[in-house]
Each structure stands twice: as structure tokens, then as C-alpha cells.
Amino acid sequence: xxxxxxxxxxxxxxxxRTAPPAGGGLEICLVHRPKYDDWSHPKGxxxxxxxxxxxxxxxxxxxxxxxxVLGAPLGTARYLAHGRPKRVVYWAAEATSGSFTPSEEVDxxxxxxxxxxxxxLTEPRDRELVDALLEALRPAxxxxx
Length: 145
What we know:
Layout: E1 7-17, E2 26-33, E3 38-40, E4 43-45, H1 52-64, E5 66-81, E6 84-98, E7 108-112, H2 114-120, H3 124-137
Parallel strand pairs: 1-6
Antiparallel strand pairs: 1-2, 1-4, 2-3, 2-7, 5-6
């Protein structure tokens, strides 16, 4: 598409460890956007002069109310959004503090097991990010046990 610049965005697969007695598993945070009636990972456009990492942290804070620590890069999604090419860079991000307040942009969040998160996500490309997160968090050296 001539003259169409790529929309640059950044986001995170936000996760946290579950507390006992659930015992050391993890939960993934999904956001619900009423405008699109979809479930996705927190993400948004990179502002002028902002790094992708800073944008990812800001978007998590704005959409979920949580601060986080960025971890491993999880990949880049490329797709058309409203007729324009879009590129979204994702990181694993561990939630550290905060609480959710509904807004016009995001009216609900859910903390779900990886399996439930995969099932709830609207876009197949977002499901692949759950797999990438699990791979990134897998202990080095092989099997868990």
C-alpha cells in the first residue's frame, strides 16, 4: 500500500505466580476491550520518541493498572489493522504491583491459567505468545520435576 506507514506498537504477556495453595503455577493477564469486544494481551502504539520497551511498560500500566518487569522478548506480530500494516513487539512481563481500574479502553481483565488464557484469547496470533511465554519461563536444562 503506497504511502501507508507501518503502525508501531508494543505489548506484553503479563504473568504472575499463583500463591499457595494453588502452588507455584502461573496466571496470565488478559484485557477485554469493549470497542472490539475482544480478549488480548496488553499492547498499544509507540509514541513519538518513545522506545518499544518503554511503550510496552506504559501500555501494561495503562491497561491493567500493574507495574511489571520486562523479561525475554517473545516475538513480533505483523498484521493489517484497519487497512494499515501493524507491527507489535512483545515481551514476557512479570507483574510486580498494582490493581485494575476499569476504563473506556479496557473494561475488564482476567488472570487465567495458560490453558484458559489460550482458550479465551480472540486472535490465534495471541495464543502463540502464550506458548512463547511458557518456553521462555521453562527452566534451562530441560525437564521440570
